[in-house]
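Appendix B. Extra example for self-study. Work through it before the problem class; the solution is given directly after the inputs so you can check yourself.
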Amino acid sequence: MSTRLAKGGRLIDRTKPKNFTFNGKRMKGYEGDTLAAALLGEDQMLVGRSFKYHRPRGIVASGAEEPNALVNMGQGGRFEPNQRVTTTELFDGLACTSQNHWPSLEFDVGVVNNYAARFLPAGFYYKTFMAPAPAWKHVFEPIIRKSAGLGKVPTEADVDRYEHFYHHTDVLVIGGGVAGLAAALAAGRSGAKVLVMEQTHHWGGRAPVDGGEIDGQSPDDWTAATLAELESMDNVTLRTRMMGSGVYDHGYALGYERVADHTPGDDRPRHRLWRIRAQQIVTATGSIERPLSFAGNDIPGVMLAAAVRDYAVNWGVSVGDRTVVVTNNDDAYRTALVLKEAGLEVPVILDARDQATGPLAEAARAAGIRVEVGKAIAKVNGGKRVTGVSICSQAGEGSAVEDIACDAVAMSGGWSPVVHLWSHCGGKLIWDDEQSHFRPDPDRAPTGHDGQSFVVTAGAASGAMSLADVLSDAYAAGQQAAKAAGGKAVRKAGPKADPEATQPMAPVWIMPQGAGHQKRMKMWLDYQNDVKVSDVQLAAREGYESVEHTKRYTTLGMATDQGKLSNINGLAILSDALGQPIPATGTTTFRPPYTPISFGAIAGEARHEIFQPLRRTPMHGWHEDAGAYMEPVGHWRRPYCYAKPGETNEQAVHREVLNTREKLGLLDASTLGKLIVKGPDAGKFLDMMYTNMMSNLAVGKCRYGLMCSENGFLSDDGVVARIDEDTWLCHTTSGGADRIYAWMEEWLQTEWWDWKVYVANITEQLAQVAVVGPNARKLLEKLGGMDVSKETLPFMQWKDGKIGAFDARVYRISFSGELSYEIAVPASQGRAFWDALLEAGEEFGVMPYGTECLHIMRAEKGFIMIGDETDGTVIPQDLGLNWAISKKKEDFLGKRAQLRSHMTDPDRWKLVGLETLDGSVLPDGAYAVEGGENQYGHRNMIGRVTSTYYSPTLKKGIAMGLVKHGPDRMGDVLSFPTVDGSNTEMKARIVDPVFYDKDGEKQNV
Amino acid sequence: MSNAVSALQGASFDGYCKVEEAGLVGMITLRGDLSSEGVTKAVKTATGAEMPGQGQITEGAKGRAGWMSPDELLLVVDHSKAADLVAAATKTLAKEHALVVNVSDARAVYRLTGDAVREVLAKLSPADTAVMVPGQLRRTRVAQIPAAFYLTDDQTAELICFRSVAQYAFDLLKDAVQPGSEVGIV
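Solution. Structure tokens for the complete assembly:
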């Protein structure tokens, strides 16, 4: 059993106990524990079930590489699945539950999959697609859905806060072990600005566990002294609980700071995502120990040798009373020595090498530990917990020569540098035969805009395996990065350790090397996804030669751990099966994030009211107070209608239409785009931007204009007013202001850079109100100020003056067909102006109206709407707007495109009015069909509805649509199949699109 | 005009920095040839400030002049005088190709005060606020909206955004100065 030792634990404070629960069971740990350490301290070795076979899973590792021990963490608004216990700090009141089992962790019916393993081979998921189609839906999918999966989905919204933080630095050091600190020391001493991040809450990495001396000090003492020096430097920033998540182009890197995971509810942001721009990045990310592939290597109690050591030294936790150590290298001997010193038993060290001659092996023998060379584990005995191992010769096929009782196995298959961050942005790897691992190739580093390297690795992440090598490599890396980032040369020597003699490791990919199929089916490569040696070999036999394909086919190295333990072992097996050297197989792609980061951190502050910017007009508050039903228009919210108590939105819209047509309506038109275009060449410029002529517009007058893209398609429309000799004001659609402003700037900056034109977007400077209806003039006359009579201010003209006390620019323009004034006042006075109009307008029956009323009134008049009648494929000619396309102009944007054969095709669908025979309302977007079928067997379509409303004015449905040969077919009746499932058709007659006041008498009064 | 109000009418929030809407602020966009004598004169007349260099904002007796682009300046002046100053500058520049336009009401201005003012801005803007000193102007973004800001001293920043997103900007700043969210990098 695993237990807390009476002594030891350099990271824990035994005077500060912390209570927590696992599956409802009350447990105790100490401050400084990880959840993994606390669970093991309470003998909770079994922590979950595997993904596919539901096999019992125990803690394997002690850090970010842990594949098994994922739990559902927290409750309610702080519930989150798949939390890794090895990287979770213990806190009082922590509550977690195990995942992926039913009904309980101890007894899981899903484990039958285990016995059916031979029916769930590699690629099982894909193979089910090959079966008859109904089998997928009725057989495989339900089975896979039930058995697969990790944690539970949260049911409540996250109650925590998150934020981003932008940081700029000369040198970013990722990793706070002795390598990272040595690199930081070098960079800090150069005067460069340095940020150092460490993913755990303590500095020094694993050097204090592994021992040795740095400049004559213990690694712990050296770390403390180095931190003190770094803290004294103003140019160095040190952060713990912050993981280097990704390295991207141009020295961009993400730091994932877990500010308050260990103090939930203390009002701090839970996570903070650091968005870092660094000139140089040092990755001091250490290395990860590899498992060994022997039968039963997934049984709880089999752990990485260094993890067993970590639990003993860092947290005073014994993983078992009797631990068998199995290894192919010297490092695992450290574990045996640590355990022995803690008073625990190590029945045997199984060294797969033919001899064990290194100093550590000698020390183990001297400590009285039995060392067996050339030996391997034939199989691990036990179910939910290791009970013993059978040992055999590594060279043979696995005949057991001896059974040894034990309750833990510490395995070491060698070490792989953490190359992830190096690789994210294109750093290449080389295969190191001596260490049997991929390590960064310093000659093929990630490069920046200047073709120079911007990432350098430090310490074990470079492939340095001894303390002495780690320190010299890391200090040099820090110097290199600082120099490249412009720091001054550093003379001061870096930290040193004595060289140590080691015996080379021996690559061992299968244990024993001649193991038969039965054994290989029990050798786990990927614990999380249940991928075994036999699965990878099967994939190779089925033709999967690419490591990327094999990964997806077998799921090796997928999901939350991304194969931190399994990748190298898996591709060694694949290489062997393909009969090629490992470097020829290569690795899968390393992509950010290094370990999963929260969606909250990615979203940052963008939640609730600041999820997205919401644009408000000066009158927005009035609309809200009036209970307006708002609709999004771009990022604006505009009133759709103002329903009164007891009124539906539809009734409100109809009331607003009739009131505006009969009396007086007010529309908040502030969202309309307003662009000032000024300069000696402004007229020439606008002639290019618009399809019609703007240069000859007289000062004081207005003209409706169309804008097209260079491909001829209608892009925006609006009224243009000539302000003075070289100044025009262009109105754009509400959603188009920023886009058209950018469009104008682009042409001015890239194509016509020598034209003298300036543009300014003054959309938000002005509040604009449309005063519409037969009583509009009466209202303005009552307020007093400027003369708004027909004679002084005729239709399609504008004037500056005063309305009441307000400085105003008044346009006689109409999008409704009624007598209409659009009045612009400074935005700061917009609300006061609106209030004044409402108050004075009461006697004239004033009512505000919303966007739907606006739409209906314009449709009654046959006015097009950008986004309804246009969809990016429509040209002005389709809409019968030829009158607005100048024939005099030599050129305008879109002119040439509109001459292409497809644009002049007489078969193009063209705008018409549509009127149902029974007065009902056509569905929006409905298609008109005629006899016959097209090449796909669909009915031939000859048109579609673009706008459709019930007209309260005309008391019937009206619509506009684009119809093939439409304008030539006036009076024809078309069929529109419905899509409501009734299998019926609606009949509508083609009519003129202007339904109301065709001669414009009402607006021109 | 007594009817005139700023977008948030002086709303404020005390966090680990103080956020307050600055009320009505006059602003003028001036586009033209920044090397011309006329523009220099117009800037001096309107603000009393010298012509700002690239990325700079200068201060005069009557206002500030900020460099926005190679052919655009932002003049920060008294709100009530903005319209008259536009007219005067337009007259000064009548003979050259220039555009002077009142944008006072198109904007909202926030004042941030506190020791951590650079840190708070760095939560929202990708600009390197740590190296910013008074006299510099950054056109950048805060979260999802365009914005510009400058420091008036080491504890005070003024941030300009569009009026329609004034509430969003205020809510953003409020969120960024929440006690407990101090990064500790001042």
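Self-check: The longest strand of chain A covers residues 162-174. If your reasoning did not lead you there, revisit section 3.
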